[in-house]
Amino acid sequence: MLIYMDDSIFSETAKRVKASEIREILKLTQKPGIISLAGGLPNPQTFPLEEIKKIVNDVLNSNNNGLQYGLTEGDPELRQYIAQMMCKYGITCNPDDILITSGSQQGLDLISKILINPGDIVLVEAPSYLGALSAFRSYLCDFVDVPSDGEGIRTDLLIETLETLKEDGKKPKILYLVPNFHNPTGITTSEKRRKEIIKIASDYDLVVIEDNPYGELRYEGEHLKAIKSYDTEGRVIYLGTYSKILAPGFRIAWALGSGELIKKMIIAKQAVDLHTNTFGQRIAALYSQNYLDKHLVKILNFYRIKRDVMLSSLDEYMPNECKWTRPEGGMFNWIELPEYVDTKEMFKDAINSNVAYVIGSAFYIEENLGRHTMRLNFSFPKDEEINLGVKRLSEVIRRWL
């Protein structure tokens, strides 16, 4: 029997949260025959099935440690490996600086839980990762967005924004960034901007959340030093994940921070789930120690081909009026159409033409922004689907032009 409840029964948080627009869009992509360039999924062909099968047996044969309760902080061997892995990004840390989380999304939620009071201001890039916006919004923050360009967030406009807020008596607390192969644009923040960001954070007393889910998926060029590597004051929280380099189903990720920040996150996690699943952590630890380096070479070659197919297809089919990013890694391309084309209105036409994308406005705080943009994914579709999907999409766009 259904019991009617009016809104008064729900908390202010529940009233404010809303369903993910992307996930609602993805429901429409299940229609047979549709080529979806909309998702943000790793390709199942990159999952190391044989290695996982062997590791599962090894874990089960090792005194059942993988089936028992574990430390809130996470598996010691896994944290030790991650601490060593962070050196490639210029980060010097120890295992005590690391908390293993149930996906990066939990890391975002725990950060929000320990830092955000209702009405606090969170600074984000425009556009920005939708999952982070959802996590912060749940804690009743106020957003201020700062435009980005081909080098990442515009640091000149960031300073200008901070000064304007200061004149109004407002003090932001958090700056959220995805500096490597940004979701949704695929852009990488330049080294110059990274150094400027840490100085601005120090000058204006900001906590920086450096979210790096795609950093290992670099197909050309060299790894840039993390923003965290320039942090001498302990004001950067770095987030990493195994979802793109092992398998997202394990929900193994980590937060790296200094002093009280990471300690408060550990305490907050104890109230949520006590600890991240032990079995998955043991698998991730053994996988990292024995297979990760070789597996990365394999999946980088696999995704590089897909990235190149996407770029060559865009070059071949897209109208001259469109612009798109050329990412050095990650999973996404960002497409800009002339401003008079509304990609949300165009979406139904695309579905009827058996191709799907994610509308760009979903990644903005202000719904009227980014209406002429879209995000395309190249990691999940087959190579031939990427080419045909871009061809179909270009035909739709030409009709709207």
Automatic annotation (TrEMBL):
Gene3D superfamilies found in the cross-reference section? Aspartate Aminotransferase, domain 1, Type I PLP-dependent aspartate aminotransferase-like (Major domain)
Instruction: Give the keywords, sorted.
Output: Aminotransferase, Pyridoxal phosphate, Transferase
Domain named Aminotransferase class I/classII large: which ranges? 45-385
Top-level taxon in the UniProt lineage: Archaea
EC number(s) recorded for this UniProt protein? 2.6.1.1
- Alphabetized InterPro entries for the sequence: Aminotransferase_I/II_large, Class-I_PLP-dep_aminotransf, PyrdxlP-dep_Trfase, PyrdxlP-dep_Trfase_major, PyrdxlP-dep_Trfase_small
Question: GO: which molecular function terms?
Answer: L-aspartate:2-oxoglutarate aminotransferase activity; pyridoxal phosphate binding
The cofactors it requires, by name, are: pyridoxal 5'-phosphate
Tell me, which GO biological process terms does this entry list? alpha-amino acid metabolic process
- What family, per the record? Belongs to the class-I pyridoxal-phosphate-dependent aminotransferase family.
Q: How does it assemble?
A: Homodimer.
State what protein this is by name: Aspartate aminotransferase
**What is the protein's species of origin?**
Candidatus Methanofastidiosum methylothiophilum
